[in-house]
Every structure is written in C-alpha cells, then in structure tokens.
Amino acid sequence: MTPDDLREAAAALAAQALGLPELARARTVAAYVSVGAEPGTGALLDALCARGVRVLLPALLPDGDLDWGAYTGAAGGEGSLARVRHGGRMELLEPAGERLGREAVTEADVVLLPGLAVDGRGLRLGRGGGSYDRVLARLERAGARPALVVLLYAGEVVDRVPAEPHDRPVDAVVTPEGVRRFRTP
C-alpha cells in the first residue's frame, strides 16, 4: 500500500470503529499504537481522546506482559509517546508518562486488540509473543467483561486460524471496509 493508501485506510478504520456502540459509550479504552504494516490507529486514538475517553496504551515488559499508561492525544504534546526498542524486537511507541500497572486494563470498557488474522469463530491470531493472551486471561480472572475488538484489514479476516485451548473469541473485528460481529453488544 502507498502512504496515501495507508492514510485513507487508517481514516476509514477510525470511522468504522467510532461507529461502534461499544466505543460510543466507553469511558476507558485500552488500545495500542500500530506498527509496521498494521492498520493505522493514530486517527482513532486521537478521536477517542477528543471525545473525552480515557485511552490506555500498553508498554511491553521484559517478561512479555503489558503494563499500561494513559495517552493524552497528539494535542497532548510531543511527550505523550516515547519510542522504545525492546532488545532485538521492533521499536514500539509507548506511553511516556506514569505506568499504571498490569491490572489497569481491567478498568477498560473496550479493549482494541492487534492481530495478524481473525477467523469466523472470532478467534484472533496474534504475533506469537503471548502478551495479549496474558491480557485476556487477566480480564477473565478479574471478572472484567470489556468489549474485545480486533483491528485488521479485510484480507486478514479468514476462515480459520490455529487455536490453542486458552484462546478466547473476540466480540468483533473492524476493518476499513466494515464491522463483523461475533457476539451482539
């Protein structure tokens, strides 16, 4: 995709996601900053902040788990995000401010998840690090029931992905072209 294609897809993804009733009523959203070829999340994150939504972003810990910090939006200044390289892994943009702890995600009304693919059962294929598997297990242990939404391109919605016993289905997938639900809100 060209840079213009990527910008257009990110804007379309934000528009589709912002139309979700779950995001319309959310007070806190756990999200992420897209990297590499992932669908762009910047426009969506800033739109959520503009709505007054508390946006939590992950910070990768040495054990592969995630801590969380608040994102104040692009209007919050240059210091809202920091570039962090994790050993031989890719460089990530993480919240620059105070860390809120691993459990902060349990306060979210919606959790936006990255992925490589999602299938017709609503099962998400991640990058294999297990960070979001830990997040989903933490939510379950805490009895938290946020809406789980994966952000992908249409071609990443497939018939079937490999599944493990610990995998949990998501509620919906949002692509620049639309929304597919696996569970009614």
TrEMBL record:
EC number: 6.3.3.2
Keywords, alphabetical: ATP-binding, Magnesium, Metal-binding, Nucleotide-binding
Stored InterPro entries: FTHF_cligase, FTHF_cligase-like_sf, NagB/RpiA_transferase-like
SUPFAM superfamilies: NagB/RpiA/CoA transferase-like
Keyword set includes Ligase: no
Family: Belongs to the 5-formyltetrahydrofolate cyclo-ligase family.
Name the UniProt record assigns to this protein: 5-formyltetrahydrofolate cyclo-ligase
Organism: Streptomyces daghestanicus
